[in-house]
Amino acid sequence: MSYKLANRVHKVQPSFTLQMATRAAEMRAEGIDVINFSVGEPDFNTPSHIIAAGKKAMDDGFTKYTAGPGMIEFRKAICEKLERENGITYEPADILVSNGEKQSLYNVCQAVFDQGDEVVVFRPYWVSFPEFVRLSDAEPILVDTISEHNFEPDFEDLEKKFSPNIKGVILNSPSNPTGGIWGEEAIIKLLHIAKKNNWIVISDECYERLVYDGEFVSTEKLNREHQIGADVITCLSLSKTYAMTGWRIGYAAGPRDIINAMSKIQGQATSCANSIGQKAGIEALSGDQSCVEEMKVAFKERRDFIIDLLNDLPGVTCAIPGGAFYAFPDFSPYLGKVGNGQILKDTFDISEYILGCANVVTVPGDGFGAPGHIRFSYATSTDIIEKGIERVRSVLEKIV
Ligand SMILES: Cc1ncc(COP(=O)(O)O)c(C=O)c1O
User: Fold this and answer.
1) pLDDT value at position 20?
2) Closest atom, ligand 1, to C-alpha of 17
3) Which residues does the chain have with pLDDT short of 70?
4) What is 209-260 written as a DSSP string?
5) If you count Cβ atoms within 10 Å of the first and of the last residue's Cβ in the chain, which end, N or C, has fewer?
6) Residue 143: beta bridge partners?
7) Which uninterrupted H or E stretch holds 118?
8) How far is the CA of 2 from the centre of ligand 1 (A)?
9) Which pLDDT score, from 0 to 100, does residue 46 have?
10) Ligand 1 in reach of 173 Cβ (< 6 A)
11) What pLDDT, on a 0 to 100 scale, did the predictor assign at position 313?
12) Which phi and psi (to 5°) does residue 212 adopt?
C-alpha cells in the first residue's frame, strides 16, 4: 500500500450495531435459523399511501436535484408538523432536510465544533454520537446517567466533568439504546446549564412518536415555554415514525445561522436529500396519521411482552422503557461466570456466547458505554420474541 489513510479514519469506530446486523444476515445466508434482536428499524413496511406518493413522484419525473436545504413544499410541511405536533413554530428557512437524520447530526457537529472543543454525551449513548463528535475533531465527554431514573443525567457527574472547553451537549430522549425518556425537570435543568455556559444543545428526537406511557415534549418547546433561551437544534427523522429507514429522510430545525452553516456543508457533501423521498415525506407528514398509531400499538404490546419475558430470565432485571423499541436488561450477574468453557468478562462475551450457543443476535451494552447491559430490539413479532427469549433462557441455564 503506497498511500496512508487519513487520521480521522483511525479516530472513528465502525458502527458495531451494523456489524451485528451484518453478522445475523450472514448466518441466515448460511442457512442457520437465527433470531435477530439487533434490528434498529421497524419491521413494518412503509405505509402504502407514502409508497404511492414516492411512485407518483417518479412517474411525474420528479427525479432531479431539489433545492439544497430541501424542497420548499417539504420544509413548509415540516414547519406545519412542528407547530401541530411539537408546539414549536419555525419558518422554512430554519429547516434543513438531509439524507436521514444521521446526516443532520453529522452536519450540525461539523458546523459547530472544532479541535479543542468538548461535547457532553450521556452514557449509555447511541453509538454514533461520540463518533460524530470525533469526526468534527472535538472530544466527547461521557457523562453518566441514572438507570433507576429512566437514564436521566447524573448531574453530579456532569458537574465533575465541567470544563471551559465544553461547547455543546447531545441528548436523545426517548433513547437508543435504553428506551428511557427524560422527565421535563431533567431537560429544563440541562437547558439552564447549557444557557449559562453557552453550550449548543443538540436534541435527537427521532423516537418522538414511539412514546408509550405519557406525552412526548420537545426540548425546544420547554426551552421556549420556560424562556430559557438556549440554542437548541432539534434533529428529527421519518425513519422510525413511518417505517422509512431506507428512504433516508431526516431534518433539523434551529437557529438560522447554524442551519445555514449546516446547509453549506451539506451542499458540498450530498447537494440535497433524495427528491423522491422528499415527495413521499410530504405525504408522510401531512397525510393520514393512523399508520403511526397502529405501529405504536403493536410496539407497545411487544414491549410489555418482552419486558415480562426478560424479567423472568434467571438473574436478569429489566426496567420498563418508556419509548423507542429497545429493551436494555441488566445481565451483570453473569459477568465473571463461565459459559461453554469461556469466562464471560463483559457483555461482548455474553452476547457472543448467546449467539454461538443459541443463534440469537443481541447487542452488547459495553458498545454503548453501558457495561452489564444487553440491548434487545423488539421490532419483531411476538412469536419471534417468545422463541428467541426461550433460546436465551436455555443457554443462560448452562452458565456456571
Ligand atoms: C438515536 C438515533 N438517532 C438517529 C438515528 C438515525 O436515523 P436516520 O435513519 O434518520 O438517519 C437513529 C437510527 O438508528 C437513532 O437510533
Assistant:
1) 78
2) 14
3) 1
4) T-B-SS----HHHHHHHTT---EEEEEEESTTTTT-GGG--EEEE--HHHHH
5) N
6) 122
7) strand 118-123
8) 36
9) 98
10) no
11) 97
12) -100, -25
